[in-house]
Amino acid sequence: MKIGDKVSVVDDNLKGLVTSVHGETVVFRDEFGFTHQYKMNELVLQNPNIYEGLKTIQKSESSKPVSRKHQRKHLILDLHFEKLVENPQFFDSTERIFIQKEKLMETFEFCRKNHLKQLEIVHGIGDGVVQKMVHDFLIGQTNIDFEQDVFFYHSAGNVMVWFR
């Protein structure tokens, strides 16, 4: 270090111009006119031209890998009877609701076994029989949250269920 060099203190927010050097001790004046004394190993030279002439390489930023778990869509269970059996005309109303409830229970078991977080149950609007069966089933389950506020207003033919 020599007189006239710009320096900054390593562990402090202090910088200035060197006014004198006495062995290992350096005296410098800060921007406010105050003088400070530090050992050479506590100071760093400030050289604004240090990086001139160096070629910089711009590297592309790699994208973060997203786990497949977060890319999965929620499971959808459609309880429309035509989608559950091949010949729906051969079943009476009691058998229909029984098969729909069995499919609902089976799907719930699958979701819990496979640690799924969301299930959308499509029950349709209709006369409300399947809707009531789904609602009664959901009330009897534990460790779930589901949309209860819009359930009976026939504004939606489905209900979302979140597993805790």
Q: What descriptive keywords fit this protein?
A:
single chain, 4-stranded mixed β-sheet, 24% helix, alpha+beta
Secondary structure layout:
Elements: E1 6-9, E2 15-22, E3 25-30, E4 35-39, E5 43-45, H1 68-71, E6 75-78, H2 81-84, H3 93-113, E7 118-122, H4 129-139, E8 144-146, E9 158-163
Parallel strand pairs: 6-7
Antiparallel strand pairs: 1-2, 1-5, 2-3, 3-4, 7-9, 8-9
Helix pairs in contact: 3-4
Approximate strand percentage: 25-35%
Broad shape: rod-shaped
Q: Give me the strand/helix succession.
A: EEEEEHEHHEHEE
**Helix proportion of residues, in percent?**
10-25%
Distance from first to last alpha carbon: 65 Å
**Gyration radius over CA:** 37 Å
Tell me about the largest β-sheet.
5 strands, antiparallel
Strands of the widest sheet, in order across it, are 4-3-2-1-5
Structural class: alpha+beta
Number of helices: 4
Q: What is the residue-averaged pLDDT?
A: 85
In total, the number of strands is 9
Low-confidence stretches: none
Describe the fold and architecture.
- With 164 residues, the protein is α+β, with helices and mostly antiparallel strands.
- 24% of the residues lie in helices and 27% in strands.
- The chain contains 4 helices and 9 strands, in the order βββββαβααβαββ.
- The chain has helices spanning 68-71, 81-84, 93-113, 129-139; strands at 6-9, 15-22, 25-30, 35-39, 43-45, 75-78, 118-122, 144-146, 158-163.
- The strands form 2 sheets. Strands 4-3-2-1-5 form a 5-stranded antiparallel sheet, with no helix packed on it.
- A hairpin with a 2-residue loop joins β2 (15-22) and β3 (25-30).
- α3 runs parallel beside α4 (129-139).
- The protein is rod-shaped, with a radius of gyration of 37 Å.
- The model has no long low-confidence stretch (mean pLDDT 85).
